[in-house]
Each structure stands twice: as C-alpha cells, then as structure tokens.
C-alpha cells in the first residue's frame, strides 16, 4: 500500500512538470507570432488586405485617385466602429497636416463629407463617403502623400498613393551618392545639360520619426556659403536652388519635411562652360554639417583637363601647386598647373602680379613681366589673382608667355602669396628646346669679388676689331638682389696697357637685373675698336667710391 502511494505521487509530480513546460512553451510561441506594435502610431490597429486602415475603431479606406482638368480627386470612406457619434472636422489640426506630391510640392486641399464641407457628424456604426480635392496639381505629380487629421482619434495617412493615368517623372539615381546629416538623407541623383543651361537633381529624405525643419543653401551672395564648381575650378554665379514650392537664388529657409517623406530638389544655372565635364557642389545648411557632393559627371561630356606630364609640385600651408605641362607654339609658351587646398577648411589665396618676388624667367635670365595669368574665374590677369579655394577641390590655371626668347629652354616661376612662403618652381622644360647656354671658363685673374654674387667669365672672343665677352651672375642670397655693371664713373673697361674704352664703344646685354635667390643670369659685353695688339682686358665695376655688394674687379682676361 505504501509503495503504491509513492508511485502515484511520483506520477502526479511528473505530469505537473509536463503541463507547466507545455504552458511555458505556448507562451513563448505566442510572443513570437504576436503582431509588433506600431511605435509611430500607437493607436493604429493595422491595415487590412483591402487597404482599409483601422484607428481607434474608426476605419478609413481610400479609393482610386483620379485627375480631371488638373484637379485631383481622392475619394474615401470612413466607418465608425465605436458606440458613440464622432464629429469630423476637415481642419482639425490644420497647422500640423499636409498634402504633397511625389516631387515634394505642397498643396492646399479641401475635404468634403457627402457634399458637406468642413464638419460632419458620423453616427455610431455608420459610414460616410468623402473626397479630398486638390486644384492645379502639377503635371509632374504621379503620387500623393498626405497626413490629414479629422478627429482627435483619427488621422488619415497615405504614402505614395498612385494617381491614375500619371507616370512618375522623378529623376533617376545615377550618381548614388548619399549622406545623412542630422537625420536628413541627401542623395545626389543626376544632371541635365541643355544648350548652355545645367541642372543637378537631388533628393532629401527625413529619416527621423518627427518632422524636421532646416535651412538649405546660401543666405547671401558669398561664395564661401554655397558653391558649384566644375572640374576646371570655375565657380558659377547666379545659381538657383529649387526645393518643393520655392526657387531661390541664395537659399531656402524653413524647409519642412515630415517623417519618412522625400523632397526632390534642383540646382540650376545658365552659361555652363563648354569644357566642363563634372561638377562639385556645397550647400550651407542649418544642420550639424553642410551638404557637399563631389565629382558629379555631366552626361555626354568628356574630361579635357590638362595631363600631368611634369608633376612638379610644391606645398605651402596645405596648398598644393602642381605644374602639369608646358606647351610651345611658335614663340608662345603656355604653362598649365593646378592648385588644391588639402586643408579641412576653405582658404583664400592671393597671388600678386608684378612684384619683386613675383616673376617668370627663362634659363638665360630674361624676365617676362607681361605674362597672362588665368585661374578659375580670373582670365588673362597681369596684376594679380585673388581667389577662393574650397577644401580638396582642384582648380586649374595657366599662364601664357608671348615672344619667348628663341634660345630659352627652361622656365622658372615665383609667385608672391599671402601664405607663409611664396611658390617657386624651377627648371620647367620647354618642349622641343635644348639648352644653348654658354659653357666653359675664360682665363683671368680676380682682384675682388663680392660675397653676395658668384660672377664667372665664360669666354672672351675676338672677331676682327670686335670682342664679345660672355659671363654669368648667380645670386647667393636668400632674397632677390639687384645687379648691374657700373663702368662709367668709378669703374672702367681697359686693355692690358690701361687704355679705356668709352661708352660709345661698349654695348651691354643682360637678362633681368633683379636676380632671384640661387638663380643664374647670363650677360654679354660687346667691345668695338679693339686694337690688334690688345691681348687682355681689365674690368672694374664700381657704383661709387666705396665698394658695395655688387662691385667686382678682374684683370688680364685673355682674348681668344
């Protein structure tokens, strides 16, 4: 009897465990298949297969959206499933409600209930038919989005409700460049070029759970606020920004985007340059960052940027200057370059024109003060360029030298800037030219030479009663110095017997007297009326009775 009791008790315990485990399993299965609550609309009981939406036992169903004479008609049916009558008002929350098309254009709308406008009392367990009407709907509209509150317990919503007979004309996403800034998703889509007009299409979408308002685009005419720059570095003026119902030259304030809704925008301007093949844009925003899209190709355009053959680069304060190539046609030389700001912030740069430390010289030391300088929007400038450099954008430029020295084989440049140092690039080769610089070492004795210049006499050759002396002068200082031969007052040129040549018998040929640091300038002295018995020449250069930095003296220069 006792054993029977123990067995029965054990069976009861086992059955209890099995039942409890079964109940627990059922509970977990019910949790997995339970419908997730609508976090954004906690009172929304879901949408049925026929498109009916139930909110707080109030059901609404949209019928087909149709167009008649550019007027949108969107019929609907509302069924009151509650036990009380409901007073529907067309403008219940007018300030928070909206209706817009697939492009993002906002519209005024009207709501009717069985031909009764504004207010309708819907009795318990009854239905009412109504209609939303929008006049002058845009021809481009193919869908509508709406948020219309009719009662504190009923807000009708529709996202991408198709309009019968309309086909979407939204721009195609060819660029696929997307950035999210403070919950706003920016997507650059595509571009259009027609005649000389250009448009860049983009989309802005609110990814947050509430409406976001912000400003987009420049609020002034300043380039630093917003810009459109092509691949050559040309900055376009008179650029318009179109978003929704607003088309503005400078900027658009208080753009309002409901949660989950996209607005389509367009940057458009005229007079796009023929050589532009892509665009870069930046739009000032009131969000945490500005919106920027780079390297947006223009359909049907091919790059014509100068090739980087020389790749001669110098960097100062994060600004890269790269000489790309050099072309030579007859006696016209063109040097192409690009300049790029590698800093995280934009910079302004000023390249001074004619100045002591702004120059272009060839390997003989001849200067070209009237070279025409072009960069971005500045063309054929002589006196200087003041321009704006966005972060990490290439801007291409060139300078053109007319009537270049027929013997020149290289170009040297130096530009005075507002940076911590000046740009200087030496030994830019001229295509097809080889050096014709004089070489060799003449025989002479040094009496005195300055410490600031390295002066060398290369040759001294006779031709009948004429002698041609060739020499070079190198500036040994870190800054530009003036150099000149002074032989008229305290200086002289004489033969080995001390007989001096007068000014009428001397001709000087020299490059630029303002010699930059470490640069060599070549010169020649032509003497006439040279006696046959003259075999050597003495030269003294002195600007006054006291020696200065440019004075020198040599003797016994042998005539070959």
Describe the structure in your own words.
With 560 residues, the chain is mainly beta. The chain has 4 domains: 91 residues, no CATH class; 140 residues, Immunoglobulins (Immunoglobulin-like, Sandwich), CATH 2.60.40.10; 118 residues, Immunoglobulins (Immunoglobulin-like); 118 residues, Immunoglobulin-like (Sandwich), CATH 2.60.40. 6% of the residues lie in helices and 48% in strands. The chain contains 1 helix and 45 strands. Strands 1, 2, 3, 4, 5, 8, 9 and 11 form an 8-stranded antiparallel β-sheet that branches. Strands 14-15-16-22-19-20 form a 6-stranded antiparallel β-sheet, with no helix packed on it. It has a 6-stranded antiparallel β-sheet with strand order 25-26-27-33-30-31, with no helix packed on it. The N terminus is likely disordered.
Considering the chains and any ligands shown, give keywords for the structure:
560 residues, rod-shaped, 48% strand, 4 domains, eight-stranded antiparallel beta sheet, Immunoglobulin-like, six-stranded antiparallel beta sheet, mainly beta
In short:
With 560 residues, the chain is mainly β.
- Spatial gap, N to C terminus: 146 Å
| CATH class division of the largest domain | Mainly Beta
| Total strands | 45
The SS-based structural class is mainly beta
Strand content: over 45%
User: What is the CATH homology-level superfamily of the largest domain?
Assistant: Immunoglobulins
Please mark out the parts with pLDDT under 50 across 5 or more consecutive residues, or reply none. 1-45
The profile of the biggest β sheet is: 8 strands, antiparallel
Shape descriptor? rod-shaped
Helix content: under 10%
Q: Please tell me how large the radius of gyration is.
A: 42 Å
Q: How many domains would you count in the coordinates?
A: 4
CATH topology type of the largest domain: Immunoglobulin-like
Mean pLDDT: 87
What would CATH call the architecture of the largest domain? Sandwich
Q: How many separate helices?
A: 1
């Amino acid at each position: 009897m006792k054993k029977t009791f123990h067995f029965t008790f054990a069976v009861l315990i086992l059955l209890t465990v099995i039942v409890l485990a079964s109940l627990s399993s059922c509970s977990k299965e019910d949790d997995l298949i339970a419908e997730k609550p609508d976090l954004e609309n906690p009172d929304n009981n879901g949408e049925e297969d026929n498109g009916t939406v139930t909110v707080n036992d109030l059901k609404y169903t949209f019928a087909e959206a149709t167009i008649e004479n550019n007027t949108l008609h969107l019929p609907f049916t509302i069924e009151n499933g509650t036990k009380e009558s409901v007073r529907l008002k067309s403008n219940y929350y007018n300030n928070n409600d909206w209706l817009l098309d697939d492009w993002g254009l906002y519209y005024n709308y009207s709501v009717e209930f069985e031909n009764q406008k504004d207010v309708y009392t819907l009795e318990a367990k009854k239905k009412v038919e109504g209609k939303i009407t929008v006049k002058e709907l845009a021809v481009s509209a193919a869908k509508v989005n709406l948020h219309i509150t009719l009662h504190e317990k009923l807000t009708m919503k529709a996202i991408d409700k198709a309009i019968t007979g309309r086909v979407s004309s939204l721009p195609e996403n060819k660029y696929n460049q997307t950035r999210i800034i403070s919950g706003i998703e920016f997507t650059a889509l595509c571009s259009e070029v027609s005649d000389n007009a250009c448009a860049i299409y983009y989309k802005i979408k609110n990814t947050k759970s509430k409406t976001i308002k912000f400003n987009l685009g420049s609020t002034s005419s300043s380039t630093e606020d917003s810009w459109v720059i092509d691949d050559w570095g040309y900055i376009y003026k008179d650029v318009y920004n179109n978003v929704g119902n607003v088309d503005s030259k400078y900027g658009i304030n208080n753009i309002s985007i409901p949660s989950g809704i996209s607005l389509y925008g367009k940057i458009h301007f005229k007079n796009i340059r023929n050589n532009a093949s892509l665009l870069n844009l930046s739009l000032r925003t009131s969000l945490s960052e500005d919106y920027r899209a780079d390297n947006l190709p223009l359909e049907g355009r091919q790059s014509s940027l100068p090739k980087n053959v020389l790749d001669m680069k110098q960097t100062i304060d994060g600004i890269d200057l790269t000489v790309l190539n050099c072309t030579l046609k007859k006696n016209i030389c063109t040097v192409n370059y690009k300049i790029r700001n590698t800093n995280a912030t934009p910079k302004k740069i000023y390249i001074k024109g004619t100045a002591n430390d702004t120059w272009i010289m060839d390997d003989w030391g001849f200067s070209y003060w009237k070279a025409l300088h072009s960069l971005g929007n500045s063309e054929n400038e002589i006196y200087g360029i003041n321009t704006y450099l966005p972060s990490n954008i290439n801007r291409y430029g060139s300078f053109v030298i007319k009537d270049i020295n027929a013997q020149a084989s290289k170009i040297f440049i130096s530009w005075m800037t507002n940076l911590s140092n000046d740009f200087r690039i030496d030994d830019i080769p001229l295509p097809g030219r080889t050096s014709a610089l004089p070489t060799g070492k003449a025989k002479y004795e040094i009496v005195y030479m300055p410490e600031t210049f390295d002066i060398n006499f290369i040759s001294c050759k006779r031709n009948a009663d004429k002698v041609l002396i060739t020499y070079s002068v190198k500036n040994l200082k870190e800054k530009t110095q003036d150099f000149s031969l002074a032989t008229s007052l305290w200086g002289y040129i004489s033969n080995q017997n001390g007989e001096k040549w007068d000014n009428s018998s001397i001709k000087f040929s020299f490059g630029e007297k303002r010699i930059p640091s470490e640069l060599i300038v070549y010169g020649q002295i032509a003497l006439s009326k040279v006696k046959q018995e003259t075999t050597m020449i003495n030269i003294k250069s002195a600007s006054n009775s006291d020696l200065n930095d440019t004075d020198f003296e040599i003797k016994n220069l042998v005539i070959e």
